[in-house]
Structure formats: structure tokens, C-alpha cells
Design brief:
- α1 packs antiparallel against α2 and α2 runs antiparallel to α3.
- The radius of gyration is 18 Å and the shape is elongated.
- The protein is mainly α.
- The protein contains four helices and two strands.
- β1 and β2 form a beta hairpin.
């Protein structure tokens, strides 16, 4: 019986980071609905917070989508790196949007507060870590090499 060396073998640290981030965002999205319910879909109400982060149902759905992406994309190095870039682009844009939206209820349809902006910067940093994690060469002998 031969042993398969498929992509389900050893995972790189950046893949595991993508998995953890995906799981955390999925759990936060689910927990957010316990705070907000399903009313006030895009409402600006900073009284609805989860661990200090303002949420509304639309914001919860965004967290669910990021979580699902992380859980589905962590499995291969290339997809995990793509997830990292999606975090960088998406949360970079969310941070810039949040700079304007925090104090402007007319445009703050995601109910972002200052704590959210800090989390968005951390998510950008995590995305960069996933996307730019150094490539590991598993074998130094001539022949095919696995790259991450």
C-alpha cells in the first residue's frame, strides 16, 4: 500500500492562520446575530456591540462570508495566499471606509466603530502574513520541489 502525498499532508503555518481567521470570523458572524437579531439590517446603532465591536445584521453577514472563505480556502497554499490577499484588499477598503463612516450615520451602513477600524488593520496585517509568508522548499536535492 502506498502513502499518498496529496495536499492534505503537512500544512504550512500560513494555511493554519487562514483556517483560524476563517473560524474566528465565522463564529463572530454567528454570535453577532445573538446581539442584533435580524432587525435593522443596515442600521447604525452603536449600542449593538459584540465584545466592544459594533455590529448589525449586514455586518454579521460580512463576517460569515469572510469566515466561510477562510474555511474553504485554507486547504491549499495557493488558495490560502489568495485568501490573505482578499483580507488585505477587503479589510483595507473597510478601514478606509470606516475612517469616514464612524462619525457619519448617513453612510455607516455596516455600523462600524473605532474598535472595528483597529480590527480591520489587524486583519490587513494577518492577510499580509498569510499572503507573504516565506516560501518553504521541502527538499534541497535536485528534482521536483513543493513550493508554498
Amino acid at each position: 500500500m502506498t502513502q499518498s502525498t496529496s495536499s492534505t499532508g503537512t500544512r504550512a503555518p500560513f494555511q493554519r492562520l487562514a483556517l483560524v481567521i476563517g473560524a474566528v470570523y465565522l463564529l463572530v458572524g454567528i454570535a453577532g446575530f445573538f446581539v442584533t437579531g435580524f432587525d435593522g439590517f443596515a442600521e447604525h446603532d452603536h449600542d449593538q456591540t459584540l465584545l466592544g465591536f459594533a455590529v448589525n445584521p449586514l455586518h454579521n453577514i460580512v463576517h460569515l462570508l469572510i469566515g466561510i472563505l477562510g474555511l474553504t480556502m485554507w486547504s491549499t497554499p495557493g488558495r490560502a495566499r489568495t485568501f490573505g490577499w482578499l483580507l488585505v484588499i477587503g479589510y483595507g477598503a473597510a478601514f478606509v471606509y470606516g475612517l469616514f463612516a464612524v462619525n457619519n450615520p448617513d453612510i455607516n451602513f455596516l455600523n462600524i466603530n473605532a474598535a472595528d477600524n483597529w480590527l480591520h488593520i489587524l486583519s490587513v496585517a494577518a492577510g499580509l502574513a498569510i499572503a507573504l509568508w516565506p516560501r518553504k522548499h521541502a527538499d534541497t536535492t535536485p528534482g521536483p520541489q513543493r513550493q508554498y
